[in-house]
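Input protein
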Amino acid sequence: MATRHPSTNHFVMGSSNTICDRTGFKRKIDELDKEWTGHIVIPEAFNERHPQDFPFVPVEEPTFPDARAEEADPTDSIGSITVI
């Protein structure tokens, strides 16, 4: 037989009854946790944020630091043609 959580209809100074946003169970506010989504839930229904929500993207160095061609030397010649 399933075990029941003790009744929350008793007085605790500084605590109030609250309904879990996920399960609808009534518990004392001190027993509930707040998720990253803002929902207040019982510990059994608490979901951690998924690691893929925080991707690590490595910064790549550029393949070519300076892809411009070198300036042609006016003294270079190809066959009988002079490159300027």
The chain has a mean pLDDT of 80. DSSP finds no helices and six strands in the chain.
